[in-house]
């Protein structure tokens, strides 16, 4: 079988760190072009363009595109790519709003193309194993701790703290995507407090209370913070009413359960994304999951707002040792 010819739109950090290697290692895809508005497109041997319109016109035989831009323009880009007859893969979050995600899904369905909204944390083997362990159970308590250093992981990315940049929910949506994948019943945001730097438009921290309609009030919580200068923490602990306890750490890559050694899956989240994308292209099956983004939107809708100290990227962060695994971006 010939490989699918794919283009990348938005050649930023996530595309270079994850998408390029995954496509290169995939037996199903061949990188055929890239575009990057306002950024470098230096990539030997691959046609490169300053914008996606130019790329679509010049490389008309693309089968699919991966859209790796910031979330703001993703709906309009996806619409243009679908109109040009291309399948689309969307980095997380799939669009700037829940309504835009729905629009992408409708456009893809109308022309029989595949749209695939990806949340890489869901593709951890440990996350899949946790979902199997929790299947059919009732959650009693849940604790999410997602704390990291913004300056270390996103240096100088001012857009991420502007309106529409998602702020702490840029990494926090990874935790929310794990919740929507592993919990055996739907989860909702029942209360929220968002912490906004005095000079920014997006929150730098958040405290959430979740509900499922079954667990006792106040037993499902989330603590998200982008000001953590000590050890970085990406963990989710769950206990069910029958006494099952499990904990996902390292962004969902490590699973701890009572009476068993820790399970650490391979660092192949993006390889798994492209494996699934290839399967979906074969079967013409879209998956435009908006559930994690809906939790973000709901948090903004019901939250109280607390102003905190101004944030400046020029400030200093404590030097941290390189992690064993890449940060769950």
Compact description:
The chain is an alpha/beta fold and 329 residues long.
List keywords for this structure.
2 domains; 329 residues; globular; 15 strands; alpha/beta; 9-stranded mixed sheet; Dihydrodipicolinate Reductase, domain 2; 25% strand; Rossmann fold
Molecular structure report:
With 329 residues, the protein is α/β, with parallel strands linked by helices. The protein has two domains: 114 residues, NAD(P)-binding Rossmann-like Domain (Rossmann fold), CATH 3.40.50.720; 159 residues, Dihydrodipicolinate Reductase, domain 2 (2-Layer Sandwich), CATH 3.30.360.10. It contains nine helices and 15 strands. The chain has a nine-stranded mixed β-sheet. It has a six-stranded parallel β-sheet with strand order 3-2-1-4-5-6, sandwiched between helices. Strand 12 and strand 13 form a beta hairpin. Helix 3 runs parallel beside helix 4. The longest helix has 15 residues.
């Amino acid at each position: 079988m010939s490989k699918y010819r794919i283009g990348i739109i938005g050649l930023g950090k996530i595309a270079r760190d994850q998408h390029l290697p995954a496509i290169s290692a995939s037996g199903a895809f061949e990188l055929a072009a890239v575009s990057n508005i306002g950024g470098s497109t230096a990539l030997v041997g691959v046609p490169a363009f300053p914008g996606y319109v130019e790329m679509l016109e010049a490389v008309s035989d693309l089968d699919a595109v991966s859209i790796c831009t910031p979330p703001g323009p993703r709906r309009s880009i996806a619409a243009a790519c679908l109109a040009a007859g291309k399948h689309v893969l969307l980095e997380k979050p799939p669009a700037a709003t829940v309504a835009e995600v729905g629009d992408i899904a409708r456009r893809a369905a109308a022309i029989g193309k595949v749209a695939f909204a990806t949340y890489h944390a869901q593709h951890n083997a440990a996350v899949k194993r946790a979902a199997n362990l929790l299947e059919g159970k009732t959650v009693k308590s849940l604790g999410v701790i997602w704390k990291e250093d913004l300056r270390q992981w996103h240096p100088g990315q001012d857009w991420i703290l502007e309106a529409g940049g998602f702020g702490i929910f840029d990494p926090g949506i990874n935790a929310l995507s794990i919740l929507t994948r592993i919990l055996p019943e739907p989860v909702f945001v029942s209360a929220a407090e968002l912490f906004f730097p005095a000079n920014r438009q997006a929150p730098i921290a958040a405290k959430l209370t979740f509900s499922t309609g079954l667990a006792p009030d106040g037993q499902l919580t989330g603590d998200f913070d982008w000001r953590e200068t000590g050890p970085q923490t990406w963990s989710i602990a769950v206990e069910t009413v029958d006494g099952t306890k499990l904990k996902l750490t390292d962004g969902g890559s490590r699973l701890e359960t009572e009476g068993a050694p820790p399970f650490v899956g391979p660092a192949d989240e993006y390889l798994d994304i492209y494996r699934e994308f290839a399967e979906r292209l074969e079967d013409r099956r879209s998956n435009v999951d908006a559930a994690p983004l809906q939790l973000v939107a709901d948090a903004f809708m019901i939250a109280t707002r607390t102003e905190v100290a101004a944030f400046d990227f020029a400030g200093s962060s404590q030097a941290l040792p390189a992690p064993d695994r890449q940060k769950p971006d």
